[in-house]
Every structure is written in structure tokens, then in C-alpha cells.
């Protein structure tokens, strides 16, 4: 228990020192106007660089992340089939898939209400 505490403290101390050193060493003393200006293939920018973010794109990205995490949770289910009882495996798999389907249905309903 004490060794875990010591290792954790040493790790946190090293991480804190590295972050502190990087903030001290990475300070920009000279602000370069060309580096701070937006770059569009050598042309002057046509519009503002601070356009509002598309909510539709954001929702698609969030749904992609959710399904990406779901796939990483679903893949081990198939590999644990040989290691567990078939009934407990089937029960836990069905509960997990049911929760996922409830979430998908909820997102589908919220999306339908939002777009109407």
C-alpha cells in the first residue's frame, strides 16, 4: 500500500515538473504577426476564421464516438463466450444490448423532435 502511494506521488511530481517546465520554456516572447494570421494557401482569407460550429457535424461526431466506445465494449463479449456459463453470458449480453438499443432509440426520438 505504501509502495503504491510512493509510486503515485513520484509519478504526480514528475508530471507536475514536466508541465511546469513546458509552460516556462514555451512562452513566446516575440509575437509574429504572420504566424498569428490565418493562412489560406497564400491568399488573403475571405471570411472570418471564427465561424460558428455546425451543430449537425458536432452531433454526428458525438454519435460516432458513442458507437466507437460501444464497439470496444461489444467485442470482448464474443471472446468471453468460452470462459463463462452460457446463460450468464447470454443474460449479460442481452441486458447490455438492450441498454444500447434504449440509448439509440432515445437519440433517434430526440433527433426527430429537434429536426421537426
Automatic annotation (TrEMBL):
MF annotations from Gene Ontology: NADH dehydrogenase (ubiquinone) activity
Pfam families, A to Z: Oxidored_q4
Membrane-traversing stretches: 6-26, 57-80, 86-106
Annotated Gene Ontology cellular component terms: mitochondrial membrane; NADH dehydrogenase complex
Keyword Protein biosynthesis carried by entry: no
Membrane topology: Multi-pass membrane protein
Catalytic reaction annotation: a ubiquinone + NADH + 5 H(+)(in) = a ubiquinol + NAD(+) + 4 H(+)(out)
Keywords for this protein: Electron transport, Membrane, Mitochondrion, NAD, Respiratory chain, Translocase, Transmembrane, Transmembrane helix, Transport, Ubiquinone
Function: Core subunit of the mitochondrial membrane respiratory chain NADH dehydrogenase (Complex I) which catalyzes electron transfer from NADH through the respiratory chain, using ubiquinone as an electron acceptor. Essential for the catalytic activity of complex I.
Name of the protein: NADH-ubiquinone oxidoreductase chain 3
Species this chain originates from: Macrophthalmus abbreviatus
Name of the coding gene: nad3
Amino acid at each position: 500500500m505504501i509502495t503504491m502511494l510512493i509510486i503515485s506521488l513520484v509519478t504526480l511530481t514528475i508530471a507536475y515538473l514536466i508541465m511546469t517546465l513546458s509552460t516556462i520554456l514555451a512562452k513566446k516572447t516575440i509575437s509574429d504577426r504572420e504566424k498569428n494570421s490565418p493562412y489560406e494557401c497564400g491568399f488573403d482569407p475571405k471570411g472570418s476564421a471564427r465561424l460558428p460550429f455546425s451543430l449537425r457535424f458536432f452531433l454526428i461526431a458525438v454519435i460516432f464516438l458513442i458507437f466507437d466506445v460501444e464497439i470496444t465494449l461489444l467485442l470482448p463479449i464474443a471472446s468471453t463466450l468460452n470462459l463463462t456459463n452460457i446463460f450468464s453470458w447470454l443474460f449479460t449480453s442481452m441486458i447490455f444490448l438492450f441498454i444500447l438499443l434504449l440509448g439509440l432509440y432515445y437519440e433517434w426520438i430526440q433527433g426527430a423532435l429537434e429536426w421537426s
